[in-house]
Write a structure and sequence with these properties.
With 365 residues, the chain is mainly beta. 2% of the residues lie in helices and 48% in strands. The chain contains two helices and 29 strands. The strands form eight sheets. Strands 2, 3, 5, 6 and 7 form a five-stranded antiparallel β-sheet that branches. Strands 20, 21, 23, 24 and 25 form a five-stranded antiparallel β-sheet that branches. The protein has a four-stranded antiparallel β-sheet with strand order 9-10-14-13, with no helix packed on it.
Length: 365
Protein backbone atom coordinates (compact mmCIF):
# COMPACT_ATOMS: atom_id res chain seq x y z
CA UNK A 1 0.00 0.00 0.00
CA UNK A 2 1.10 3.59 -0.73
CA UNK A 3 0.18 6.26 1.81
CA UNK A 4 0.27 9.96 0.89
CA UNK A 5 -0.32 12.86 3.25
CA UNK A 6 -0.08 16.64 2.99
CA UNK A 7 -0.77 19.81 4.94
CA UNK A 8 -3.53 22.18 3.89
CA UNK A 9 -3.45 25.80 5.13
CA UNK A 10 -7.15 26.54 4.92
CA UNK A 11 -10.16 27.05 7.16
CA UNK A 12 -12.61 26.14 4.41
CA UNK A 13 -14.91 23.17 4.88
CA UNK A 14 -15.95 20.69 2.21
CA UNK A 15 -12.53 20.78 0.53
CA UNK A 16 -11.81 17.85 -1.80
CA UNK A 17 -8.31 16.77 -2.76
CA UNK A 18 -6.89 14.80 -5.65
CA UNK A 19 -3.41 13.25 -5.88
CA UNK A 20 -1.95 13.37 -9.39
CA UNK A 21 1.05 11.40 -10.75
CA UNK A 22 2.88 12.35 -13.95
CA UNK A 23 3.89 8.90 -15.20
CA UNK A 24 5.58 10.23 -18.36
CA UNK A 25 4.86 10.26 -22.08
CA UNK A 26 2.09 12.83 -21.54
CA UNK A 27 0.04 10.57 -19.27
CA UNK A 28 -1.35 11.60 -15.89
CA UNK A 29 -2.71 9.20 -13.28
CA UNK A 30 -5.16 10.61 -10.75
CA UNK A 31 -6.37 9.16 -7.46
CA UNK A 32 -9.99 9.42 -6.44
CA UNK A 33 -11.11 12.60 -4.71
CA UNK A 34 -10.94 12.53 -0.94
CA UNK A 35 -12.10 14.88 1.79
CA UNK A 36 -9.09 14.50 4.09
CA UNK A 37 -5.41 15.41 3.91
CA UNK A 38 -4.25 11.85 3.27
CA UNK A 39 -5.00 8.95 0.95
CA UNK A 40 -4.06 5.28 0.74
CA UNK A 41 -3.43 3.80 -2.70
CA UNK A 42 -3.01 0.25 -3.90
CA UNK A 43 0.41 -0.47 -5.38
CA UNK A 44 -1.07 -1.39 -8.76
CA UNK A 45 -2.51 2.15 -9.01
CA UNK A 46 0.89 3.90 -9.12
CA UNK A 47 4.32 3.60 -10.72
CA UNK A 48 6.88 1.99 -8.43
CA UNK A 49 10.69 2.03 -8.29
CA UNK A 50 11.29 4.87 -10.79
CA UNK A 51 10.98 8.67 -10.42
CA UNK A 52 7.59 10.27 -10.99
CA UNK A 53 6.25 13.77 -10.38
CA UNK A 54 3.41 14.03 -7.89
CA UNK A 55 1.23 16.92 -6.71
CA UNK A 56 -2.06 17.55 -4.92
CA UNK A 57 -4.99 19.53 -6.29
CA UNK A 58 -7.55 21.09 -3.94
CA UNK A 59 -11.05 22.27 -4.87
CA UNK A 60 -13.82 24.17 -3.05
CA UNK A 61 -16.85 24.99 -5.21
CA UNK A 62 -15.53 26.69 -8.35
CA UNK A 63 -12.14 27.52 -6.82
CA UNK A 64 -9.09 25.27 -7.03
CA UNK A 65 -5.34 25.30 -6.46
CA UNK A 66 -2.50 22.85 -6.59
CA UNK A 67 0.70 22.19 -4.68
CA UNK A 68 4.20 22.33 -6.12
CA UNK A 69 5.29 19.22 -7.99
CA UNK A 70 7.59 16.84 -6.18
CA UNK A 71 9.73 14.17 -7.80
CA UNK A 72 9.67 10.93 -5.82
CA UNK A 73 10.52 7.30 -6.28
CA UNK A 74 7.76 5.32 -4.63
CA UNK A 75 9.12 2.47 -2.47
CA UNK A 76 12.30 4.51 -1.87
CA UNK A 77 10.54 6.65 0.71
CA UNK A 78 8.73 4.53 3.33
CA UNK A 79 7.00 5.54 6.54
CA UNK A 80 5.56 2.83 8.76
CA UNK A 81 2.32 3.05 10.70
CA UNK A 82 2.49 3.74 14.42
CA UNK A 83 3.57 0.63 16.39
CA UNK A 84 0.47 -1.29 17.45
CA UNK A 85 -0.43 -4.03 19.94
CA UNK A 86 2.54 -3.37 22.21
CA UNK A 87 3.40 -6.22 24.59
CA UNK A 88 5.98 -6.20 27.37
CA UNK A 89 7.69 -8.48 29.87
CA UNK A 90 10.61 -8.38 32.28
CA UNK A 91 13.66 -10.64 32.15
CA UNK A 92 16.34 -10.08 34.82
CA UNK A 93 16.20 -6.28 34.64
CA UNK A 94 15.75 -6.17 30.86
CA UNK A 95 12.45 -5.00 29.40
CA UNK A 96 11.31 -7.08 26.39
CA UNK A 97 9.01 -5.13 24.05
CA UNK A 98 7.01 -6.54 21.16
CA UNK A 99 4.57 -5.10 18.62
CA UNK A 100 2.98 -5.97 15.28
CA UNK A 101 5.56 -6.05 12.47
CA UNK A 102 5.12 -3.51 9.68
CA UNK A 103 6.77 -5.75 7.06
CA UNK A 104 8.17 -9.25 6.80
CA UNK A 105 11.71 -8.17 7.67
CA UNK A 106 13.27 -6.52 10.76
CA UNK A 107 13.18 -2.78 11.38
CA UNK A 108 15.13 -0.13 13.28
CA UNK A 109 13.33 0.91 16.46
CA UNK A 110 13.69 3.70 18.96
CA UNK A 111 12.16 3.63 22.41
CA UNK A 112 12.00 6.51 24.85
CA UNK A 113 11.20 6.01 28.51
CA UNK A 114 11.02 7.69 31.91
CA UNK A 115 10.19 6.60 35.44
CA UNK A 116 6.43 6.63 35.98
CA UNK A 117 6.69 8.64 39.21
CA UNK A 118 8.99 11.27 37.62
CA UNK A 119 6.95 12.63 34.73
CA UNK A 120 8.70 16.01 34.88
CA UNK A 121 12.01 14.39 33.88
CA UNK A 122 13.15 14.24 30.27
CA UNK A 123 12.84 11.08 28.22
CA UNK A 124 15.80 8.73 27.91
CA UNK A 125 16.12 7.03 24.51
CA UNK A 126 17.54 3.75 23.21
CA UNK A 127 17.81 2.60 19.60
CA UNK A 128 18.34 -0.91 18.23
CA UNK A 129 17.49 -3.20 15.33
CA UNK A 130 14.48 -5.38 16.06
CA UNK A 131 14.23 -9.12 15.66
CA UNK A 132 11.25 -10.56 13.77
CA UNK A 133 9.42 -13.41 15.50
CA UNK A 134 6.08 -14.68 14.20
CA UNK A 135 5.10 -11.36 12.55
CA UNK A 136 6.11 -9.47 15.68
CA UNK A 137 8.97 -7.01 16.11
CA UNK A 138 10.88 -7.54 19.34
CA UNK A 139 13.33 -5.22 21.08
CA UNK A 140 15.17 -5.46 24.41
CA UNK A 141 15.79 -2.41 26.60
CA UNK A 142 18.62 -3.43 28.90
CA UNK A 143 19.55 -2.56 32.49
CA UNK A 144 16.35 -1.00 33.74
CA UNK A 145 15.04 -1.22 37.31
CA UNK A 146 12.56 -4.11 37.24
CA UNK A 147 11.01 -3.04 40.56
CA UNK A 148 10.18 0.36 39.03
CA UNK A 149 7.27 1.40 36.79
CA UNK A 150 8.05 3.22 33.53
CA UNK A 151 6.31 5.12 30.76
CA UNK A 152 7.46 4.28 27.23
CA UNK A 153 6.85 5.24 23.60
CA UNK A 154 8.07 3.42 20.48
CA UNK A 155 8.65 4.37 16.86
CA UNK A 156 10.19 2.37 14.03
CA UNK A 157 11.41 2.67 10.44
CA UNK A 158 12.47 0.47 7.55
CA UNK A 159 16.07 -0.69 7.08
CA UNK A 160 15.52 -1.81 3.47
CA UNK A 161 14.81 1.43 1.55
CA UNK A 162 16.88 4.42 0.47
CA UNK A 163 14.88 7.04 2.34
CA UNK A 164 13.21 5.56 5.44
CA UNK A 165 11.05 7.85 7.55
CA UNK A 166 10.35 7.41 11.24
CA UNK A 167 6.81 6.45 12.10
CA UNK A 168 4.89 8.59 14.55
CA UNK A 169 5.45 7.76 18.20
CA UNK A 170 3.13 5.19 19.68
CA UNK A 171 0.76 6.34 22.44
CA UNK A 172 2.36 6.40 25.88
CA UNK A 173 2.35 2.93 27.47
CA UNK A 174 2.77 2.42 31.21
CA UNK A 175 4.99 -0.54 32.12
CA UNK A 176 4.40 -1.83 35.67
CA UNK A 177 7.16 -3.35 37.76
CA UNK A 178 7.70 -7.08 37.82
CA UNK A 179 5.62 -9.11 40.28
CA UNK A 180 8.62 -10.69 41.99
CA UNK A 181 6.88 -11.79 45.20
CA UNK A 182 4.00 -14.21 45.70
CA UNK A 183 0.81 -13.02 47.41
CA UNK A 184 0.72 -13.48 51.19
CA UNK A 185 -2.52 -15.41 51.75
CA UNK A 186 -4.48 -16.05 54.93
CA UNK A 187 -7.59 -18.26 55.23
CA UNK A 188 -10.59 -18.24 57.56
CA UNK A 189 -12.60 -21.49 57.66
CA UNK A 190 -16.23 -22.10 58.58
CA UNK A 191 -18.18 -25.39 58.38
CA UNK A 192 -21.54 -24.98 56.62
CA UNK A 193 -23.86 -27.96 55.98
CA UNK A 194 -21.28 -30.53 54.89
CA UNK A 195 -19.06 -27.93 53.16
CA UNK A 196 -16.32 -25.66 54.36
CA UNK A 197 -16.56 -21.97 53.56
CA UNK A 198 -13.09 -20.52 52.99
CA UNK A 199 -12.49 -16.76 53.01
CA UNK A 200 -9.12 -15.95 51.48
CA UNK A 201 -7.43 -12.58 51.97
CA UNK A 202 -4.06 -11.29 50.84
CA UNK A 203 -2.01 -8.13 50.89
CA UNK A 204 -2.14 -5.98 47.71
CA UNK A 205 0.90 -5.94 45.46
CA UNK A 206 3.32 -3.02 45.85
CA UNK A 207 2.44 0.24 44.09
CA UNK A 208 4.92 0.09 41.20
CA UNK A 209 3.56 -3.33 40.18
CA UNK A 210 -0.06 -2.19 40.48
CA UNK A 211 -0.08 1.02 38.41
CA UNK A 212 -2.00 -0.61 35.53
CA UNK A 213 -4.04 -2.94 37.73
CA UNK A 214 -3.56 -6.45 39.11
CA UNK A 215 -5.77 -9.50 38.63
CA UNK A 216 -5.64 -12.52 40.93
CA UNK A 217 -6.30 -16.09 39.76
CA UNK A 218 -7.53 -18.65 42.30
CA UNK A 219 -7.63 -22.43 41.82
CA UNK A 220 -7.90 -25.40 44.16
CA UNK A 221 -6.82 -29.04 43.95
CA UNK A 222 -10.26 -30.45 44.64
CA UNK A 223 -11.86 -28.90 41.56
CA UNK A 224 -8.76 -29.60 39.46
CA UNK A 225 -9.40 -33.30 40.20
CA UNK A 226 -13.11 -32.70 39.45
CA UNK A 227 -13.93 -34.14 42.86
CA UNK A 228 -16.75 -33.52 43.22
CA UNK A 229 -17.32 -30.29 41.22
CA UNK A 230 -16.05 -29.29 37.80
CA UNK A 231 -12.98 -27.04 37.82
CA UNK A 232 -13.61 -23.30 37.55
CA UNK A 233 -10.85 -20.69 37.29
CA UNK A 234 -11.77 -17.78 39.54
CA UNK A 235 -10.43 -14.28 38.94
CA UNK A 236 -10.77 -11.12 40.96
CA UNK A 237 -9.23 -7.67 41.11
CA UNK A 238 -9.85 -7.44 44.84
CA UNK A 239 -7.75 -8.75 47.72
CA UNK A 240 -10.22 -11.27 49.09
CA UNK A 241 -12.21 -14.22 47.78
CA UNK A 242 -14.73 -16.71 49.19
CA UNK A 243 -15.02 -20.30 48.01
CA UNK A 244 -16.39 -23.64 49.23
CA UNK A 245 -14.58 -26.97 49.53
CA UNK A 246 -15.41 -30.43 50.85
CA UNK A 247 -14.15 -31.97 54.11
CA UNK A 248 -11.01 -33.47 52.54
CA UNK A 249 -7.62 -31.74 52.31
CA UNK A 250 -7.17 -29.05 49.69
CA UNK A 251 -4.47 -26.71 48.39
CA UNK A 252 -5.51 -23.23 47.26
CA UNK A 253 -3.28 -21.48 44.70
CA UNK A 254 -3.27 -17.70 44.23
CA UNK A 255 -1.36 -16.01 41.40
CA UNK A 256 -1.18 -12.26 40.74
CA UNK A 257 -1.01 -10.99 37.16
CA UNK A 258 -0.28 -7.54 35.70
CA UNK A 259 0.54 -6.25 32.22
CA UNK A 260 4.08 -7.66 32.20
CA UNK A 261 3.69 -11.10 33.76
CA UNK A 262 2.65 -13.17 36.74
CA UNK A 263 3.88 -13.58 40.30
CA UNK A 264 5.22 -16.78 41.86
CA UNK A 265 2.36 -19.00 42.99
CA UNK A 266 1.20 -18.75 46.60
CA UNK A 267 -0.13 -22.07 47.93
CA UNK A 268 -2.25 -22.19 51.08
CA UNK A 269 -2.99 -25.66 52.47
CA UNK A 270 -6.12 -26.63 54.37
CA UNK A 271 -6.08 -30.10 55.94
CA UNK A 272 -9.02 -32.49 56.13
CA UNK A 273 -11.69 -31.41 58.58
CA UNK A 274 -10.94 -32.20 62.20
CA UNK A 275 -13.62 -34.50 63.61
CA UNK A 276 -13.85 -36.59 66.76
CA UNK A 277 -15.43 -40.01 67.42
CA UNK A 278 -14.99 -41.05 63.81
CA UNK A 279 -16.48 -44.52 63.28
CA UNK A 280 -15.67 -47.41 60.99
CA UNK A 281 -17.62 -47.52 57.75
CA UNK A 282 -20.89 -49.49 57.87
CA UNK A 283 -21.26 -49.28 54.08
CA UNK A 284 -19.52 -47.51 51.20
CA UNK A 285 -20.02 -46.74 47.52
CA UNK A 286 -16.89 -48.66 46.51
CA UNK A 287 -17.72 -51.10 43.71
CA UNK A 288 -21.02 -49.34 43.00
CA UNK A 289 -22.07 -47.05 40.19
CA UNK A 290 -21.63 -43.41 41.17
CA UNK A 291 -24.24 -40.82 40.33
CA UNK A 292 -23.30 -37.73 38.36
CA UNK A 293 -21.20 -35.22 40.33
CA UNK A 294 -20.34 -37.82 42.97
CA UNK A 295 -16.83 -38.92 43.83
CA UNK A 296 -15.00 -40.95 46.44
CA UNK A 297 -11.69 -40.18 48.08
CA UNK A 298 -9.35 -42.44 50.05
CA UNK A 299 -6.47 -41.52 52.36
CA UNK A 300 -3.89 -44.05 53.53
CA UNK A 301 -2.74 -43.95 57.15
CA UNK A 302 1.09 -44.01 56.97
CA UNK A 303 3.70 -42.94 59.49
CA UNK A 304 1.09 -41.44 61.76
CA UNK A 305 -0.50 -39.27 59.08
CA UNK A 306 -3.21 -39.46 56.43
CA UNK A 307 -1.97 -39.39 52.84
CA UNK A 308 -4.18 -39.21 49.74
CA UNK A 309 -3.97 -42.56 47.96
CA UNK A 310 -6.51 -42.32 45.17
CA UNK A 311 -9.28 -40.07 43.90
CA UNK A 312 -12.14 -41.80 42.10
CA UNK A 313 -14.26 -39.59 39.88
CA UNK A 314 -15.74 -42.07 37.42
CA UNK A 315 -19.54 -42.36 37.13
CA UNK A 316 -19.11 -45.99 36.16
CA UNK A 317 -18.77 -48.95 38.53
CA UNK A 318 -15.67 -48.49 40.68
CA UNK A 319 -13.29 -51.17 41.81
CA UNK A 320 -11.14 -51.24 44.92
CA UNK A 321 -8.36 -53.63 43.90
CA UNK A 322 -5.83 -50.82 44.47
CA UNK A 323 -6.49 -50.80 48.21
CA UNK A 324 -3.79 -52.52 50.22
CA UNK A 325 -4.51 -55.31 52.66
CA UNK A 326 -4.60 -54.39 56.34
CA UNK A 327 -4.01 -50.69 55.65
CA UNK A 328 -6.29 -48.17 57.34
CA UNK A 329 -8.06 -45.73 55.06
CA UNK A 330 -9.96 -42.53 55.64
CA UNK A 331 -12.97 -42.70 53.33
CA UNK A 332 -14.89 -39.68 51.94
CA UNK A 333 -18.07 -39.51 49.89
CA UNK A 334 -18.56 -36.17 48.12
CA UNK A 335 -21.35 -34.64 46.05
CA UNK A 336 -21.76 -31.35 44.15
CA UNK A 337 -25.32 -30.02 44.66
CA UNK A 338 -25.81 -26.57 43.24
CA UNK A 339 -22.13 -26.46 42.16
CA UNK A 340 -21.05 -26.42 45.79
CA UNK A 341 -18.93 -29.36 47.07
CA UNK A 342 -20.40 -31.26 49.99
CA UNK A 343 -19.21 -34.26 52.01
CA UNK A 344 -21.96 -36.76 52.89
CA UNK A 345 -19.90 -39.42 54.66
CA UNK A 346 -16.51 -39.72 56.39
CA UNK A 347 -15.39 -42.95 58.07
CA UNK A 348 -12.53 -45.45 58.56
CA UNK A 349 -12.17 -48.63 56.53
CA UNK A 350 -9.62 -51.25 55.48
CA UNK A 351 -9.47 -53.71 52.61
CA UNK A 352 -9.80 -56.68 54.99
CA UNK A 353 -10.50 -57.20 58.70
CA UNK A 354 -12.28 -53.87 59.20
CA UNK A 355 -13.32 -55.01 62.69
CA UNK A 356 -9.72 -54.45 63.77
CA UNK A 357 -10.31 -50.73 63.35
CA UNK A 358 -12.57 -50.68 66.35
CA UNK A 359 -9.68 -51.53 68.64
CA UNK A 360 -7.00 -49.57 66.81
CA UNK A 361 -7.39 -46.44 68.90
CA UNK A 362 -8.06 -44.33 65.80
CA UNK A 363 -10.98 -42.39 67.25
CA UNK A 364 -10.44 -39.13 65.41
CA UNK A 365 -8.07 -37.02 63.30
Amino acid sequence: MIYCEWNANTTESNVTYKVVFDIGKGYLKESCEVGASCVTLNEDEVILNRPVDVWVEARVGNSSCQSNKKSVTLHHTVKYDVPRNVSMSWLKGDLILGWTAAQDHPALAEVRFRVHERLAETWETRMANTSLINSTYQMTVENLLKHTAYQIQIRHRSIRVLNPLWSDWSPVVTVPAELHQQPVVSIETKVVNGSRKLRLTWMPMFQAASVTGVTYSITDTQSSHRCPCKQVHHRTQGTHFTTYVSYSAVNISVIAKNAVGVSPTAVASVGQIEKVDLKTCDSTQLGKKLEKRHCLELYEFQDGDWRPAEVITSTKRNKNETMKDYIYYLYFEHRCPGRKPRTDNVCFLSQRGSSALRTSGLQGF
